[in-house]
Known about the structure:
Elements: E1 14-16, E2 19-21, E3 26-30, E4 37-42, H1 46-65, H2 68-84, H3 86-97, H4 101-121, E5 128-130, E6 138-145, E7 148-152, H5 160-172, E8 175-179, H6 185-198, E9 205-207, H7 213-222, E10 226-232, H8 235-246, E11 251-255, E12 260-264, H9 270-282, E13 292-298, H10 299-314, H11 333-348, E14 352-355, E15 370-373, H12 380-383, E16 390-396, H13 399-407, E17 414-418, H14 422-431, E18 436-439, E19 458-459, H15 464-469, E20 472-479
Parallel strand pairs: 7-8, 7-10, 8-9, 10-11, 12-13, 12-17, 13-16, 15-16, 17-18
Antiparallel strand pairs: 1-2, 3-4, 5-6, 6-20, 11-19, 14-15
The structure holds succinic acid.
Amino acid sequence: MRELKDSQLLKCFSYINGSWHSSETNFIVTNPANGEVIAKVSNAGVVETELAVQAASNALKMWSSKSANERAALMRKWFDLMMANQDDLARILTLEQGKPLAEAKGEIAYGAAFIDWFAEEGKRVYGDVIPSGSGDKRIIVIKQPVGVVASITPWNFPNAMIARKAAAALAAGCTFVVRPATQTPLSALAMAELAERAGIPAGVFNVVVGEDARGMGKVLTQHPDVAKFTFTGSTAVGKSLIEQCASTVKKVSMELGGNAPFIVFDDADIDAAVQGAIASKYRNAGQTCVCTNRIFVQDAVLAQFTEKFIQAVSELTIGNGLDDVNVGPMITSAAVAGVEQLVNDSIAVGATVVLGGERDQQGDNYYLPTILTNVTNDMPIAANEIFGPVTPIIAFSDEEQVIAMANDTEYGLASYFYARDIGRIWRVAEGLAFGMVGVNEGIISNAAAPFGGVKQSGSGREGSKYGLDDYLEIKYICIGGLNQ
Length: 484
Ligand code: SIN
């Protein structure tokens, strides 16, 4: 961390009510690239989480009473500071998460874009006046902030997943508490430092870092002062958090797992499809909820696509994210073991390794970019969310068949296909049972677009004007007696 231009961005305490809180014990944060300890962080727990909710609750009236313009001005300063410190924030992110530095810089810009975008969109929270059918009454609809928002965020995007939630919440007039993943708390704490410098008032943005996932999670999902809970992570954990939220009937939004199909039709631009598949699959070493999980290729172009894809993937360089590489380590050796298991179980039932298929020598957390062919949709590597740098390729013959295979999953987050025929583009885009469809595009994430899934991939949307609605309540006001 000595290489940071601004060493004050490295914070090791929870940020509650505008102050840094130490606790009795610490936990360590390690670099997934080499296992080195990069920080010792004060281990907050239930008590600190309750304090953070209390602080957010106390700050709510002050923050929600500000005009959208006042909130936007503060958020804009926060955005400016994030961009001004992009290099340091990216370095911290790569050190704790592992992704290549260029990707980490991209994530900082992506996260900051939510702050900028929602700051502006907060100025457009309109209501309605509805004709009542009765001359002496008016029906008025206004939108108000839901209240205190609590969240739990993942290690794969330590900055952007917080920014995407917090920006919408703050723009709507809500106050915010986040518990980031313990693997990657430093990015969240650096964001808090910059929020403070931007002048975001005490209690509006709180970060609690600690290992007691269950205890802290219970506070965030069950505290009566929390109005809304939002989570990004696995479907299994999401389900249990939804259950916990039921006791106080919280508004919830969930961004959960995915099993994205990537379909290459016989009229596709094959070179563009190869580039799109690489971008979608190997971003963050395959550790994203939206990354391609299964590639389906139509018979007529199967050989051509597969050959070009193998060539392109074989050129990817793998290593420490601080070096000039395309693919970094995975987050833990347990994550590597999970991917290895899926690959081996699929080989046992007939899949063929045509590239990679084993760990990389550089350390416990590295798995080689891998391609499997002769895969069927029911093999473990296709039926499960891989969350690693492995691509199964599945052959198909016609449109109806591939839509059925693509939709044959409990997930419904992102999907992608490459085709040129306009009729086919409409039919397939409408037929895919996913919340997001990339057509001739492998990277679809954008602050202005609604990110979210259907089926067991979650509920609610993040980003875009729809994402702001998730942090607003609708209030109906009936004004009567107008003719008296
Ligand atoms: C995710 O993997 O959950 C988020 C990816 C993105 O926002 O692009």
